[in-house]
Automatic annotation (TrEMBL), chain A:
Methyltransferase type domain mapped to chain residues: 54-127
Entry similarity comment: Belongs to the class I-like SAM-binding methyltransferase superfamily. BUD23/WBSCR22 family.
Organism the protein comes from: Lentinula edodes
Residue stretches of biased makeup (Basic and acidic residues): 269-278
Gene Ontology molecular function: rRNA (guanine) methyltransferase activity
Protein name (record): Williams-beuren syndrome critical region protein 22
Cellular localisation: Cytoplasm; Nucleus
InterPro entries, A to Z: Bud23-like, Bud23_C, Methyltransf_11, SAM-dependent_MTases_sf
Highest rank taxon of the organism: Eukaryota
Automatic annotation (TrEMBL), chain B:
Domain of life assignment: Eukaryota
Designated name of the protein: Trm112p-domain-containing protein
SUPFAM superfamilies given in the database record: Trm112p-like
Similarity comment text for this entry: Belongs to the TRM112 family.
Organism encoding this protein: Lentinula lateritia
Entries under Pfam families matching the protein: Trm112p (PF03966)
InterPro entries recorded: Trm112, Trm112-like
Length: 287, 123
């Protein structure tokens, strides 16, 4: 299936059912949690200082919960009302706003000590209408300039996102630079298809002599959660014959045949054989 | 869940609305009080970010007059307690916020303000 951002705008894609599904999925929860911790690590906030953060695209508050646990106060913005509703149900601590980040923020200068955003930026790369204000560069520009002013100097903003090409990374970083940010892209596990994660690490201020270093991406082996890798694939391959086609399923028993025939009749398929006492009976051996 | 903490950071972001666009005025606000953990360090860190007059005025709009008109030099316990209550424990659940300059109204429902703009208002 193609990426969700190619299917519909976020506020429509994450309707009531998809929002619930997304939040309940334990795998999503795990991935979100991992990425949030990593983003916090990249954010590199001074320890023992209660910071006030902005969660961009907070959704149902999966990452917000972690911010709560870590003792940060935060405000979150998201464009999908259904996701925010789930966040309310889950009683997260942060202040929530229904906002389109492509329209820019209205926060006063220096409001936040940092910003994180998990799996959001890619949603800004699709134009929904032909109005000039909905072109991706315009929206990105508006987003980054207003975010830049809303952040304290010095501070950082960390975005995890799923770029579909290098051009997209190029577009995003160049617009962020024009908005006044320093920094760049950090890629975790660049050699793994599955664990590869792209983080955009942006700095406000911090120039003038001691340039802030872009952190290193994680490398090396991915720690799997105790499961044998490729298990699923092997099981799937077992079901294929040597030509790579799926083996046809064997006829199981008479009940199974009757059920199938009933189904075909219900679907209006013609030429379904009549049921008789011979249905599903074994043939005699030829000899 | 609009608290005065974030309300104090929030200005209007309609296209061309750049001066006198802060603070947003509460209208028909229904408030709810919810206890929050008291954190002195956070309050002390946050103090320089606050626009004091806007905070006192908005608190008054919501019916809380425990804050002094001028920001005190000395931070005593009682002051911090009051500040904590005003910033973190008053939640606006329903109502709306109106920009004093362009009169754009941001409706609040279920504690979530709707900050979406119409096409012609996007800067």
């Amino acid at each position: 299936m193609s990426r969700p951002e190619l299917q519909a705008p976020p506020e429509i894609y994450y309707g009531d059912t998809e929002a619930k599904k997304y939040t309940k999925n334990t795998r999503n929860q795990q991935i979100q949690a991992d990425m949030t911790y990593r983003a916090l690590e990249l954010l590199n906030l001074p320890p023992d200082e209660p910071a006030f953060l902005l969660d961009i695209g907070c959704g149902s508050g999966l990452s917000g919960e972690i911010l709560d646990e870590e003792g940060y106060l935060w405000a979150g913005v998201d464009i999908a009302p259904s996701m925010l509703e789930v966040a309310l149900e889950r009683e997260v601590e942060g202040d929530l706003f229904l906002q389109d980040i492509g329209q820019g923020f209205g926060f006063r200068p220096g409001s936040f000590d940092g910003a994180i955003s998990i799996s959001v930026l890619q949603w800004l790369l699709n134009a929904e209408t032909s109005h000039p204000t909905s072109s991706p560069p315009h929206r990105l520009n508006r987003f980054f300039t207003t975010l830049h002013s809303a952040l304290r100097n010095p501070s950082r903003a960390v975005f995890q996102f799923y770029p579909s090409s290098d051009d997209q990374i190029q577009l995003i970083t160049s617009i962020a630079q024009k908005a006044g940010f320093g920094g760049g892209v950090v890629v975790d596990y660049p050699n793994s298809n599955k664990a590869r994660k792209v983080f955009l690490c942006l700095y406000v201020g911090g120039g003038g002599g001691q340039q802030q270093q872009i952190p290193q991406g994680l490398d090396g082996d991915v720690v799997e959660d105790g499961k044998v890798r490729f298990e699923k694939r092997r099981a799937r391959d077992l079901r294929k014959d040597k030509n790579g086609k799926r083996k046809s399923q064997k006829v199981i028993d008479r009940d199974w045949i009757l059920r199938k025939k009933e189904l075909y009749r219900k679907r209006g398929k013609e030429s379904v054989p009549r049921d008789s006492k011979f249905t599903g009976r074994k043939r005699k051996p030829v000899f | 869940m609009v608290r005065l903490l974030t309300h104090n950071l929030l200005a209007c972001h309609v296209k061309g609305c750049t001066s006198n666009n802060f603070p947003l005025q509460f209208q028909n606000a229904q408030i709810e009080l919810r206890e929050a953990d008291f954190n002195t360090d956070f309050l002390k860190n946050f103090l320089p970010k606050l626009e004091w007059k806007a905070l006192v005025d908005s608190a008054k709009d919501l019916g809380d007059t425990s804050l002094p008109l001028e920001q005190p030099e000395m931070l005593d316990d009682e002051f911090l307690k009051n500040l904590h209550h005003v910033l973190l424990e008053i939640h606006v659940e329903e109502g709306s916020m109106t920009c004093p300059n362009c009169k754009h109204s941001y409706p609040i429902s279920n504690g979530i303000p709707n900050m979406l703009l119409a096409e012609h208002e996007i800067g």
